[in-house]
Amino acid sequence: MEGEALFIDTKGDFSVERAEDMAHTLNSQLSALKNQSLELHAKIKDHYKVTQILSRIRYIRIKDESQQILLHKMLGEILEQTPSLRLIVFDAFPSLLRASDLGYGERKKEICSSLNTFLRLAKDKKIAIVVVNFMKAGRKETQTGRDGAFQTSQPTPIFGEELF
Domains in the chain and their CATH numbers? Predict the structure, then answer.
């Protein structure tokens, strides 16, 4: 019930309206608990007002790889300044690095460094860090079964195949 979330947006597609919709849905579902447990409902009702839910979502928009690299390096400091953070979402982690002028080796080094930092911080601060990567459809293969022929494809990460 306690804690805040930090959404780090690299694509500019964070939707406040969608966050509001989800907050309203959560509030409605918790209101339904009123019939099952008045004691529980009384205990949590103030925490799950839509405005309370939305006030616990922080947002950072980063626009290039230098901002992303700087943010990764400052994440420990951000967590020290905001001890109530319990969830960090990077959407989408590799997108700015893919479009950068960094060479493959430099990008790989930066991603490994960042992922190691995320793992250490998640363990030390007891928080969840979600890293979103893009996926692409793999090569289609035709397989024949007893119901006839069908095509399958295995999705693969667009970037960092050996890392994710």
Answer: 4-132 (3.40.50.300), 137-164 (no CATH)
